[in-house]
Design brief:
Elements: H1 21-39, E1 57-64, E2 68-75, H2 85-100, E3 115-125, E4 128-136, H3 139-147, H4 157-160
């Protein structure tokens, strides 16, 4: 009997092929297309952004100068019960970034008292949170206050005493 040995395949040589970069790129592209399709709100394929929950500017202004007065102010369009909402919104557009920001702590200020008046402005301005406290305790604070005229009431020498 002639015994011939037949070669058996080596089982350890059988490796599962790994997906190539082209296959991975195709899968990623498919996922992106499907995700875009899910964001569509109609058959036309257009995507509609969400409406903003309210005005980008919605402030409460509280001024104390012997008595306390509180106003509300919205901009775009100007509204609320502020006595001059349009001018107040224009003032915010012009000077709001500097006047509503946090004052520098290392700034030298004249020690000239401008009056007992204080104000707090809270809410949102241009969609960002605002929590500003203003006074007239020194020259820097008086300048901040004056930048916000007519958002804050103009003070006279008689009121400042």
């Amino acid at each position: 009997m002639d015994h011939q040995r037949t070669a058996r395949p080596n089982i350890t040589d059988r490796r599962r092929p790994r997906p190539g970069p082209l296959l991975l790129a195709a899968l990623l592209a498919l996922v992106a297309v499907l995700a875009t399709g899910c964001a569509s709100d109609s058959d036309s394929g257009t995507v509609t952004p969400q409406d903003a929950p309210g005005p980008a500017t919605d402030l409460t202004i509280k001024v104390t100068d012997g008595k306390t007065t509180t106003w509300s102010l919205t901009c775009d369009p100007a509204g609320g019960d502020h006595p001059d909402a349009s001018a107040a919104c224009a003032t915010l557009e012009k000077s709001g970034t500097q006047a509503l920001g946090t004052p520098a702590t290392d700034q030298m200020c004249t020690q000239i008292f401008g009056g007992e008046q204080t104000a707090t402005i809270t809410g949102t301005w241009k969609g960002k949170a605002v929590n500003a406290s203003l006074s007239r305790k020194d020259g820097c604070e008086v300048a901040r206050w004056d930048q916000l005229d007519p958002l804050l009431p103009k003070t006279s020498g008689a009121q400042a005493r």
